[in-house]
Amino acid sequence: MRAVAGVALAVAMLALNGRVLAAPAPPPPPPPADVVRAAWQAVRDHYFDPGFGGAAWDEALLERYLARAAAPDADGYRLAAEMVASLGDPLTVVVEPSARATQVPSSPRVQVVGIGVRLSTGPEEYPLVRQVLPGGPASRGGVWAGALVVAVDGRPTQGRPLDEVAAEIRGAAGTRVRLQLERADGSRVSVELTRQAVAWEPRAVSRVLDGNVGYLHLPHFHPGMETAALAELRKLYRTRALILDLRDSSGAGAYATLSHIAGLLTDQPLGLWVTRQGLVGLPSQRATASANPLVPAPTSADRYEQPVAILIDEVSAFGLMAFGLRQSGRAVLVGRPTRPGAGELAATLELPGGGLVQVTTGRFYSARGDPLVGPVVPDVTVPLDRHYLRAWEAGQDPDVAQAIALLRRRGAL
């Protein structure tokens, strides 16, 4: 879970009827023992493996940490985090109140005040402009996809958390921000932009590439994307192979949508989750009512039968589907490893004082029985380096080129 840093106000004052009043003091922190006990109980009650992976998650462990929590200078969240880390599961974690992540929106539509770019981490730990949104200040002001952001208002960005840099680029509508951008060859330019509200709603896009290869980009798997995928895939049924682009995709928890999209490519199940309550299957389900009256519901003919290459990267929300399709032999994967966690079900529970504990409640296994632990690693890794950016600036897509080469080597083209 990526944390978003909270904002601390050193001094807060309110003016009322000519008087200056101090803002209410924040509530005192909870007793450290309460935080430790709540975190221990959450893992005890909800962790998917009743054997806790061989870790000694017992009363003796709790008592040791409660004893340390009794110290005058004890930090309950630090102790709880240390205790939970002893489980050895990187996705079962404690989140301090100041680091609570922003809620994932239930709709893919996003509106922010900024310049209209999407960022990811690029070469040499510089922020990378992944996408320039149409109609925003960046699209009018000379910012290009593939640019490295080396400074924001004169402050260097290299090695800094991406969320921190993004927060500096955002701001109040009508204010200005100055970016220093770098090309793949090292040359730099400065642009000054005026922030404004930018709305963005990602949509499925398809086209036919040279060699009669279909290309389909799915930017999220919120409900409704299965209908868009069906409509676009129907344009590609006569192609010799399909490149399914799942890079830079978003979405959280819409597993029915994911299942319906997978059902357009295979009739085999993706796999199943192992939970404390038993096994929970994730089938590939083609048949579903269309959410769009202009797109007829799937029929028995609606399944793409030709070879498939899937593009993934560190922000692919479809990592679980890509893994399941690869392990079943239906697809090959190209790009960069996803973030860990694609194969985990998790419960997020409140802790005293406003923090959270995220507990793994299920682990995904492919239909062959392969566990998905950690990131999804592609069959062919394409480094995101300056050579990549140079090709990008020239209008090429190195991931697509490598996918076509892999399909050709495997006799699909």
TrEMBL record:
Keyword terms: Signal
Span of domain PDZ: 92-172
Keyword Signal on entry: yes
Signal sequence coordinates: 1-22
InterPro entries reported for this sequence: ClpP/crotonase-like_dom_sf (IPR029045), PDZ (IPR001478), PDZ_6 (IPR041489), PDZ_sf (IPR036034), Tail-specific_protease (IPR005151)
Protein known as: S41 family peptidase
